Amino acid sequence: xxxxxxxxxxxxxxxxxxxxDLADQIKQLGKKVLLIYGKGSVKKYGYxxxxxxxxxxxxxxxxxxxxxxxxxxxxxxxxxxRFGVEQNVDVxxxxxxxxxxxxxxxxxxxxxxxLKTWDVMKGKKVPTKALPIITILTVAATGTEMNHxxxxxxxTTKEKIGTRNVMMYPKYSYxxxxxxxxxxxxxxxxxxxxIIAHSFENFFGYGTSPLADRFAVSIIKEVMNFAxxxxxxxxxxxxxxxxxxxxxYALNGTLAAGKTSGDWGxxxxxxxxxxxxxxxxxxxxxxxYPAWFKLMKNKIPERIKDLSLLLFNTEDIDLFxxxxxxxxxxxxxxxxxxxxxxNTDKKQEIINLLTKNEASGFNYxxxxxxxxxxxMYL
Amino acid sequence: xxxxxxxxxxxxxxxxxxxxDLADQIKQLGKKVLLIYGKGSVKKYGYxxxxxxxxxxxxxxxxxxxxxxxxxxxxxxxxxxRFGVEQNVDVxxxxxxxxxxxxxxxxxxxxxxxLKTWDVMKGKKVPTKALPIITILTVAATGTEMNHxxxxxxxTTKEKIGTRNVMMYPKYSYxxxxxxxxxxxxxxxxxxxxIIAHSFENFFGYGTSPLADRFAVSIIKEVMNFAxxxxxxxxxxxxxxxxxxxxxYALNGTLAAGKTSGDWGxxxxxxxxxxxxxxxxxxxxxxxYPAWFKLMKNKIPERIKDLSLLLFNTEDIDLFxxxxxxxxxxxxxxxxxxxxxxNTDKKQEIINLLTKNEASGFNYxxxxxxxxxxxMYL
Lengths: 378, 378
Hints:
Strand content of chain A: 5-15%
Largest sheet of chain A: 6 strands, parallel
CATH class of the largest domain in chain A: Mainly Alpha
Number of helices of chain A: 15
Largest interface: A-B, 44 and 44 residues
Oligomer: homodimer
Order of helices and strands of chain A: EHEHHEHEHHEEEEHHHHHHHHH
Mean pLDDT of chain A: 97
Strand order of the largest sheet of chain A: 1-8-5-4-2-3
CATH architecture of the largest domain in chain A: Up-down Bundle
CATH superfamily of the largest domain in chain A: Dehydroquinate synthase-like - alpha domain
Low-confidence stretches of chain A: none
Number of strands of chain A: 8
Distance between the termini of chain A: 37 Å
CATH topology of the largest domain in chain A: Dehydroquinate synthase-like, alpha domain
Helix content of chain A: 40-55%
């Protein structure tokens, strides 16, 4: 077991109507709120109205920045920083899924010193101040609601990278499962893949922690148990609540106890696909993981067997991989590039991007990009 | 799933030599430390010297209060409060196991307003201020190092009760598995029972949370996996580290996600035995749990089957109970009252104490005390 620090300052309010006390919490933190959201679905489904009503009832001053895109980028985040500086806001309130919250985190650490968000992402500027961040989650998937990570992409330099900063932990996170009822079947499935992928990444991280491994497998099993139920009943409270809880625990530090880091090799492959072809994050991972397991099965067979035994009670790695693929197929998440319309004419382009970005894991290194891409087309 | 708040402000430093930065953290919190410990084993095994050397090297002013007993009581805690007030301390540093840390928590919330600790335990006085608490753990068992709970007993009124207060979360907890090497085989086993019992209490708590249930079972399985290894090799770093991690997670809130509370009925039975006969906490629980399962098997068969299926892959409750008993026996923790020298002449006394203390669970109520005590003698 590796030395580690276990610490998570986020206060997470989970359940029905939890935003009741939102205004009270905001008032403790500041006077002028920057409300950040995406492309309008929060308005369509009524979440925006519920939240802004709470702010108005409590006479909280707020301004809005809309338009964060899926696979969010630094340019839009920079616009939000400029707006926040002009408006002299002192609290950031994010209403949305991973894209909105990841953007809001970087925006919150960039406003006080008027930093360029890509400089923050690349570590060229290290923020020393941050606005407090409050999040209201509308998509169960990335776990960003209870961690200090953020992923943004740069469409000019063709990079998609993550950063971490303890100031990026949300102060408060509000998780009402009913706020995820409107996520359609396909994106609900992609969220499930993301949760499983986070569990895998932690499982394959550096360090030996049998309890953390078993926690990771617990999440994967519960995702798999609830998937067929939830996908047939998208407005079921219990199913949505369970998925929301799985998502938070998959990346709030619990699965990393006793390890120094996760692997994150498959995420780095997935990010390339999202960057270049706008592939939804979860869909990119259901393509990348089977290929990665096939690439790794002769390199780290014992570790894959550990997982396979806990998850499926078999040491047969090929059977393990086919069961993973079968699950992804069962929820209609793609397992090959051509399933998402990325045909073999893109093969060299993908290899070049993986090479340029040095896509690899922290724990298990790889650079057999041609083989990997072949496996994603297989 | 029930609404819940997930929040744990403790910053936990886990691993080899983690107390290296102890002095730096203390200096951020105050100027004069009250160091609290037990009956001298921390001196015998060198932990006291390691810790006080760190304080001296950093020129940190500290005073000492020694003499916290196992099954700690309010009178000793009151002595510590008086001493802390006189000495004008502003940080509490606890070096020890559950008894020391539980005492230190109540002492820390009692010093600022010079409260009687039993008034705090009984809720007659509600502290509004607290000294910051730092803990250095020497026994893996109770989980107190990362929660806001404390249990004390009153030898005059013959009560042993718990309380909770958000100000009782340690600011920093230091967990170096090597600091637990000196725990003898019997108390190591009792610690294992306590960890399993916390997992059970959470499992049988109010609310439906399949993921939290699976986390609880994960801990129980890992305790059972490591028990025979650790008990034959008490100075093995990996085994000690795993037990320490299990203990922390069994009661740091993780197993309560989606529930309103644990059950705690069996703990309340165990506390009676510790109070009256000084039975070690874990030993009291390995006696009480089999009896409780036998009492409950016709009342909540489905819930016990849920646990049995996850843990032993059987729905046969009698088989489940015998497997639990076999495990406790295998680690030499008592499963009947007479195993600890409490003979049947005490039967009525125990029934009277259970009745007087209204020992029962929050979730599953019971009052068949005669039947229960018979089952503990069976």
